[in-house]
Please model this.
Amino acid sequence: MRKPATPNRRPANRSGREADPRRTIPLNSAAWQRLRASVLADEPLCRDCSNRGLIEPATDVDHHDGDPSNNDMDNLVGLCHSCHSRKTARDHGARVGYGCNAHGMPMDPAHPWNRR
Ligand SMILES: [Zn+2]
Model:
């Protein structure tokens, strides 16, 4: 007797941001898409760019505290892709250079000159 065909139950090969075991909502799920849309509707401009006086659309949703299981709305921040990539790299221990703008102001949102 032939074995019945079974669907592939092996989880997808998670890589990059999906690989973090703390992530509770997969990035490709409808739940995350709804949450993401809600955050970007509330915060349509990149927060880090706005803090530096720049107007840039927010395209990514960042877990501000670095914990991908903390999906509290207060912890989700709209960022542009560039700012999100820099923050994620920094969260993972990379040294990230931001440089200065045309006025000589540091672009790093965490720089003391940019704190309010
Ligand atoms: Zn930005």
Observations:
- The pocket of zinc ion is lined by residues 46, 48-49, 56, 79-80, 82-83 (CB under 6 Å).
- The chain has a mean pLDDT of 85.
- Residues 27-114 form one domain.
